[in-house]
């Protein structure tokens, strides 16, 4: 992503590693690229910047709605292509004891 001022990125958030399902990863997100680099405050040592757009995170149900919003507001954007979610294979406890299984025992 280039560092031009005002550029926004439209993407689908990935599934969290702390969840087994796809909750909160079905929509589309519009975030702004940083307009200025972060700097260390000499007094406190905290990292921050004066870029308030870094705090903006807009969510949309579809990619088309996110793009339409960016175009209506005159925001230059980069949109990632839509990808089909990977299939989640249901796990069955009985498979741990199945005859002829190829995986090693975990205990």
UniProtKB/TrEMBL annotation:
GO terms for cellular component: membrane. One of its GO terms (biological process) is electron transport chain. Keywords: Electron transport, Membrane, Respiratory chain, Transit peptide, Transport. It is found in: Membrane. Gene3D superfamilies: atu1810 like domain (3.30.160.190). PANTHER family: NADH DEHYDROGENASE [UBIQUINONE] IRON-SULFUR PROTEIN 4, MITOCHONDRIAL (PTHR12219:SF8), NADH-UBIQUINONE OXIDOREDUCTASE (PTHR12219). The lineage of its organism: Bacteria, Pseudomonadati, Pseudomonadota, Alphaproteobacteria, Acetobacterales. It comes from the Bacteria. Its main location: membrane. It comes from Neoroseomonas alkaliterrae. Pfam families: NDUS4. This is ETC complex I subunit.
